[in-house]
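Final report, closing paragraph on structural work. Over the funding period we assembled a curated collection of sequence-structure pairs, and we close with a single example.
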Amino acid sequence: MIKASVIIAIYKDIGALSVILESLYNQTTLEAYEVIVAEDGESKLVKNYINSLDFPNLKHTSHEDINWRKNKSLNNAIKVSEGEYLMFIDGDCVPSRFFIENYLKKAQKKVILCGRRVELGPVVAKELREKKYTISKLEKSYISNYFKMKKDKVRHYEEGIIFPNFIQELRYKNYNASIIGCNFGVYKEDLVAINGFGESYNKASVGEDNDIEWRFLALGYVMKSIRNRSAVFHLYHDHKYSREDNKAMLNLLEKRKDEKNYICLDGLNKTKI
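Its predicted structure, as stored:
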């Protein structure tokens, strides 16, 4: 039986997907897992690329390319997933080689594990994309690469450091964890219980993290940190976020909070009440 599913939310970026899959198929875990490429679109290039691969337990979901519909693509992946436990990453975020192992060690029902990301600079990201070295090699020489990465304007460098357990416990003793859409894990049954992701969020902003977080919390679920255990490494690119889009999505979020829409009506099951 497949114990876990890693869901990658992508949009056309085959170069980044190649690096991500390389990391996912060189993980330290011995547990069974599948990988699902959740495409927000229907690119022939993506389909042909995935069909050319010989990876075990690899699935691909897609839908018509109509604006930003990441939440729908995530729901598509949940529906075909066979894992008991789901881990979510974005298509520009390369997981640590310990990513799956550490998530499964900490997995608990009714607990959402919240990871973080190292935001790589343009030079290091380009070298990873060009396969000049692997994410495994970067991690193994992480400390010695500190000055190179700082010169390259890395952000949140400390998230990639794996601290001893006692330091980890002290460091995050009173830390309030929160979900970011590019790195979190949850039991499938818990996500199904809130009917998955709300598909009315049609702009990149709050729909894939803030919305499910407040719904989980309102129903008594717990957020726990998995920082410095299952990091992802974000491949540098220009961000294109609109203040107007963000405001519109925040307004939708507030409306749902006012309506106490804990189990969304526009998620996995469109008729759920």
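The chain has eleven helices and ten strands. The first strand starts at residue 4 and ends at 10. We thank the funder for supporting this effort.
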